[in-house]
Write a structure and sequence with these properties.
189 residues; alpha+beta; 4-stranded antiparallel beta sheet; two-stranded antiparallel ribbon; 6 strands; elongated
Length: 189
């Protein structure tokens, strides 16, 4: 007599055997408005497998994962290492790759709306600091010499106003007093 085998759906999901009590990795949930609510996308460490992600999501959040897709994104090759104290020419460096995983969940997940008021997080100050840091990077970066400075732009604007006749040329001299002979009382030895 043949016995009917239960379907895989009734047996439950198949998981990996790795037990994780306090994980030493970080899953970064990405805001992806173009994906349906049953999909979620994460940035994960390079050594994390699909089975690890499926197992972690199920045991941490109680959400069954139906499918997992992974993608390793190679970074662009850059000249010299970032934050090097002395940049070196012809030294090439490729930053570490980024691994992204997209999962399909059994239940939908909808992101909460973005807050209207960012005052508790001091976003205005954060944006000012970020803007100042970007200006400093632009000023000290390798392409800084190629960009015209603000002083150069002001000289060009003055020349434009003079050539169109909107301004008149006038030279201004500073009166520093009587001329002084500097080498008059030097002893010659």
């Amino acid at each position: 007599m043949a016995t009917a085998l239960p379907s895989r759906r009734h047996l439950g999901p198949r998981f990996g055997s790795k037990q994780i009590f306090l994980p030493n990795f970080t899953l970064t949930l990405l805001r992806t408005p173009f994906l349906p609510p049953t999909f979620a996308s994460f940035i994960v460490p390079l050594n994390l497998t699909k089975i690890d992600v499926r197992d972690y999501i199920f045991h941490a959040y109680g959400v069954e994962v139906l499918t997992v897709r992974s993608f390793v994104h190679q970074q662009k090759v850059r000249q010299d290492k970032p934050n090097a104290s002395r940049p070196q020419a012809r030294k090439w460096f490729r930053p570490r790759a980024i691994k992204k995983m997209t999962i399909e969940m059994e239940r939908p997940f909808v992101w909460p709306d973005e807050p209207d008021n960012y005052e508790p997080w001091d976003k205005v100050k954060f944006d000012q600091v970020e803007e100042a840091a970007q200006a400093e990077r632009d000023r000290l970066g390798p392409q800084a010499a190629e960009k015209p400075s603000g002083h150069r732009e002001s000289i060009a604007e003055q020349a434009r106003r003079l050539s169109t006749g909107k301004a008149r040329w006038s030279h201004q001299w500073e009166d520093v007093g009587e001329p002084v002979e500097v080498e008059k009382d030097l002893p010659m030895s």
